[in-house]
């Protein structure tokens, strides 16, 4: 068995923690990065992606490992389960993704679900009751602009279709490795919701589950948010709390992923008149700076490490193109990770860059941020800024090497699955929660009603967030 000699195994997240998954989990993963990369000096790390160019890090033995909440975890060869053990289990794999509106009619409710997530808009605990009224207001204001974007790519997001195809491909890859498994799709903000996937898992009587986020790098706002929802559901269900679960939190450093990305970049470079002159432009989804600085989100560090590993692989193939990293998709008045993609494109034009290959490094599936934001908005901006030759690396989608690597990651994670214990909530606590929820809901509804009655307030708020 191919996986029997591997050491890239992840232990599970301990769902039975007293602290919340958000800040504590991010700090644990950040600590994991620090402990596993003590050979990387802080001065060299700080050179990565600070502007329009990047300098290499010194990293040893980094490719192929997978991070978990306790550090870089390895298992001896004998720890991998045998095929006979696997055959006795009903194995499930749940793919976590963002989700997207299927039609233009779905855009506003999709945006509501997005902004109602406390991991997306992080309000102080005291004002948590405003989350849903605020989400309603923002979604109504942003829906018209978002509808234009989805209309430009065909009237809806292709994310569900592509993720379903990835699920089928991973299931087939596991079957080819003699590991039969059911693969489920769990979208965070649109159908099929996480709740729908979990309901099907219960119906299928799954006895062991691997959670595989389709986000290469961990962030509180993506993987962290989806895991929080799963955690709450599992801890409050008698059946699910007994199902052994292993969670793959990040996999950007896996050799299969790095090689798959490098293959796509190498292929697209050949479409340029002078491939060696094209700058490789990595564009990653941004997050607010406060997530990194205040909540311990490891996303920025993992993204920079990911770019380093891809460039190291390309250099091993004789590709030494210049490259840079920037962050896209910022919204609202808060500061997001810099440099911003649009600003960097303008600056590159001023510097005389004529050939640019865009690489959407946060995404493994085509969706609005690749098809509309990069292919349309950023392409137009780049050409206006002086870039002559523009190209874009496609998302991995169902690339065979990528699918095979995801199947390997699942197999390697299986031995680490552990059951979840269910906390006991007292009747008094439950009653207090219901009373508090009722008060907050009433107050929030009144506030939302007042806001929606005053056009001047809405207009001012719209100018503030758009």
UniProtKB/TrEMBL annotation:
Pathway: Porphyrin-containing compound metabolism; protoheme biosynthesis; protoheme from protoporphyrin-IX: step 1/1
Keyword tags: Chloroplast, Heme biosynthesis, Iron, Lyase, Membrane, Plastid, Porphyrin biosynthesis, Transmembrane, Transmembrane helix
Pfam families: Ferrochelatase
GO cellular component terms, semicolon-separated: chloroplast; mitochondrion
Entry's localization field: Plastid, Chloroplast
InterPro entries: Ferrochelatase (IPR001015), Ferrochelatase_AS (IPR019772), Ferrochelatase_C (IPR033644), Ferrochelatase_N (IPR033659)
HAMAP family in UniProt: Ferrochelatase
Protein name: Ferrochelatase
